[in-house]
Amino acid sequence: MSTPASFLTEEMRQQALGLESAPVTMEVEKGHILRFAEAIGDTNPQYCDEAAARKTGSGGIVAPPTFLRSVRGVNLELPFELSFSRRLDGGSDWEYFQPVRAGDRITAVARIAELSERNGRLGLMVFMTTVTTYTNQFDETVATQTNTLIAY
Q1: Nearest alpha carbon to residue 12 among 76, 81, 75, 74
Q2: Cβ neighbours around 127 below 10 Å, total
Q3: What is the DSSP letter of 16?
Q4: Which CATH class name applies to 10-28+71-151?
Q5: Cα gap 77→6, rounded to integer Å
Q6: Average pLDDT along the chain, 152 residues, taken 10 residues at a time
C-alpha cells in the first residue's frame, strides 16, 4: 500500500486549528492523590503524609505533577477523518503554575494548536500538536500540557 504525497489541505487545517474539546472536570480526592503517589513510588511527604506536608510551603497534601495524567476523557474530534492506521505519542511538554490540592475541581480543555505533515522513512506523517489547559475551581491555570500526536 502506498501513501499519498499529501493528505492535509488548507481547508482542513483551517477547520482544525483552534478547535477545542468539551471541558472535562475531575474532583481531586485526597485518597486518589495518596494512591497515585504510591503507584508511582513517590514517597515525597507533600504527596502522602498530611502532618509533614502541613509543615512545608504547600501547607498540606498536594498532588504530584504527573497526577494530571489521570484526568481522563479529554477528546478532540477532528472535523475530518484522519485516515492513517497508526498513531504515535510524540511526547509532551508540561508547564506548572499552581499546586493541585485535595478538594480541587480540575477542568481540562484541549485545543489544536498546530497541524502539519511531512514525509518520513515510513511514508507520509501527520503531526497534530494540542495544548491542554488545566484550571481549578478558581479559574486559575494550574498547568498546561503541549502534546504531539503523529499519525502515519
Answers
A1: 81
A2: 17
A3: H
A4: alpha beta
A5: 21
A6: 76 96 96 95 91 85 93 91 92 96 96 96 94 98 97 94
**Cell triple for 38:** 504510591
Sheet holding 87-96, edge to edge: 24-27, 105-120, 123-135, 141-151, 87-96
69-102 core/surface letters (b: 16 or more CB in 10 A; e: else): eebeebebeeeeeeeeeeeeeeeeeeeeeebbbb
pTM: 0.89
Nearest one of 73, 71, 145, 137 to 104, comparing CA atoms = 137
| Rounded distance between C-alpha atoms, residue 128 and residue 47, angstroms | 33
pLDDT at position 35 is 95
d(CA 112, CA 16): 7
